[in-house]
Design goal:
Blueprint: H1 3-10, H2 12-23, H3 26-42, H4 53-78, H5 80-86, H6 94-109, H7 112-123, H8 128-135, H9 139-156
Length: 170
């Protein structure tokens, strides 16, 4: 093992503590440390021995955290209907559970952009201008995504008797 690898390995407890402070979840923290160590070892030739190795590793870890935060937020925006259902105070009727499952499956089939637009407006109840701001798109684009997404949901979710069973949303 070369000297740099040995020095990096000595920083693992500090990296884990920092990762835990950043993400709050031990499993995610371990994944963050793993990603940081992998990148640091792969790019160890870039470390200039003038600065602190610990600072260099923290910078790598923070940059990875920022990149993964974007990904985590995107994942959270893609599945809010599942989180909403988990927080319901009363158990749904059998038929309601089947409808929920079918709609959730249909929602998964939508492109992420359309799914996000529908979730923000129809499920979260946000006004169009606020949803468009969150998604970083003009209101006209939001309306297009909503229209295409709703049409796609109608085509995906059909009752056994052949009728589309989704109600018109906003």
């Amino acid at each position: 093992m070369d000297e740099t690898k040995w020095l990096i390995s000595r920083e693992i407890p500090r990296l884990r503590r920092y990762a835990l402070a950043l993400v709050g979840d031990p499993t995610e923290a371990d994944d963050l440390v793993q990603d940081c160590l992998e990148r640091a070892i792969r790019k160890r030739h870039l470390w200039k021995r003038r600065g602190s190795l610990r600072s260099w590793l923290y910078r790598i870890q923070y940059n990875i955290f920022l990149n993964q935060s974007t990904r985590r937020n995107r994942i959270r925006r893609q599945k809010p209907w599942e989180q909403a259902a988990a927080g319901m105070s009363e158990p749904a009727a059998q038929e309601g559970q089947i409808v929920y499952r079918d709609v959730a499956m249909a929602m998964r089939e939508l492109p992420a952009e359309q799914r996000a637009a529908i979730v923000l407006t129809a499920i979260e109840g946000l006004p169009y201008d606020e949803a468009a701001d969150i998604l970083g798109i003009p209101i006209g684009t939001l309306r297009s995504r909503l229209s295409r997404g709703r049409e796609r949901l109608r085509s995906l979710y059909v009752t056994p008797d052949g009728r589309a069973s989704l109600r018109r949303v906003k």
